[in-house]
Amino acid sequence: MQRCSAVKVGHWRENTTICALAFFLLANGSEATSNSFKEDEIMKLCRVAKAARGTTGIANNRLGKLLEQLQAASAAAQKLSLAALAAENNATALVFGQAAVAAKQCGTDALNELKTAVPSALINVANTAAASGALTEVISILQHNGDQGANTKCIVENQGSRAASYKSMVQLGCPEIFIDQVAELDKPDENVIGPTGFKQLGTTETTITHSGCTDCIFTNGQDLASAMWGGTTAVKVGAGIIQITPHSAGSANAKVNAAGTKATAYKLETDGSSQLQRLYKAATGPIHIPEPTCATTEDDLLTQVLDASKLKVALKPTPLALGQITDETADTKLKELLDTVAGHDSNHAQHLVKLLGQIQAKQVKNKDTELQDINKLATSNNLPTAAVIAAAEVKTAAAKKITCTSTEERVKNKKTEEEQNKECSTKKNGVHRKLRMG
């Protein structure tokens, strides 16, 4: 202070100017910082960022189940179709053929769901990853700002003072940038992103900065090279979730506006396009991927499509249309059919699954063919070849039947024609005799 004393130096006017400039610079140096962020509010945002990253696990889980249904249906349909071709009688062929149709439908249903769900899931995962990353990076800047030195306090536990133990990014609860694997989830962390909205953020606007302190450059706004922002116009950072209204000294603030994020059963009650609304929709989108409509393992799916009650419903239209059964006799006749094929009058699915594996079909071996159980053909990946052979043999047998039937029909028709002519001739002669007698 002696340098700024006009009394001691003797050059009052010159030194007063120097003193004024010094105080001006000191004042602006202190005003290059403004309000700090509340540690507990930053931790809430970290939890949101981490929970949002869980979207990938939800999508993987839900899509994986549909893919399992598709794979199970394909494997089951292959076996059932081959069994229908290789069956020794029409009844067995009819039962397994109908079950094959049902299995193929399970596969079609899963494929149709996947066609819609996969593109949507990819968009949701990309959006949540981008938002989570952007939010985490802003927090990382704030955290690293205060990690060095004693006078930079952008994240503080209480106004003007850092926590006794300054928290790392992991301790703040933020997600890691890179991951090696994803845990499969049914839904996000309900304590963060729940069925009713963002539990950590509420559904209103929240101020996430302290007031009246000058410890953080990140909220300072004025037309100075030393200020973070060149003015006092509000800016949005961290995927647009944090809104900072910069100002000099202790007049700045930062807020998170969660208005419109109230939800019911993971669906927003008020649809909108705010950043948090979009994040909520992206994070919960995969939850709404439909559950499988059929079993997701081959064994369970075979049991499902060979269930007696399902088979009776599926089988009924064909024999009904052919006049082989009536509405009144359908239930009895179809049960008799299933009893015959299964070889038992109860637990049809169990016995039909067993029979399915034991039906034999031909496979290629050393330029020849040999019979093999369907289950063993499946294990050796020979089902496709066996199906081709079985189909060819069915075609050959059908062709022989048609040729034979045609010859028989021609002979039969010729006999019928001769008999009709003879009968007609007899009748004519009888009439003539009657006329002569008359």
Can you put this structure into words, describing what you see?
- It is found in: Cell membrane.
- The chain is of the alpha+beta class and 438 residues long.
- It folds into 3 domains: 1-30, no CATH class; 33-288, Alpha-Beta Complex (Variant Surface Glycoprotein, Chain A domain 1), CATH 3.90.150.10; 361-438, no CATH class.
- The protein contains 14 helices and 12 strands.
- The chain has helices spanning 6-9, 12-30, 39-53, 55-86, 90-147, 169-172, 275-284, 298-305, 308-315, 317-321, 330-342, 348-358, 374-379, 383-437, and strands at 37-38, 155-156, 193-194, 197-198, 205-207, 235-237, 242-245, 253-257, 263-264, 267-268, 360-365, 368-373.
- Strand 9 and strand 10 form a beta hairpin.
- It starts with 5 loop residues before the first helix and ends with a helix.
- Mean pLDDT is 85; it is low at 1-30 and 431-438.
Keywords:
single chain; 438 residues; alpha+beta; Variant Surface Glycoprotein, Chain A domain 1; 3 domains; 4-stranded antiparallel β-sheet; two-stranded parallel ribbon; 14 helices; Trypano_VSG_A_N_dom; glycoprotein; lipoprotein; signal
Quick rundown:
The chain contains 14 helices and 12 strands.
Reconstruct the topology from this structure.
Elements: H1 6-9, H2 12-30, E1 37-38, H3 39-53, H4 55-86, H5 90-147, E2 155-156, H6 169-172, E3 193-194, E4 197-198, E5 205-207, E6 235-237, E7 242-245, E8 253-257, E9 263-264, E10 267-268, H7 275-284, H8 298-305, H9 308-315, H10 317-321, H11 330-342, H12 348-358, E11 360-365, E12 368-373, H13 374-379, H14 383-437
Parallel strand pairs: 1-2
Antiparallel strand pairs: 3-4, 5-8, 6-7, 7-8, 9-10, 11-12
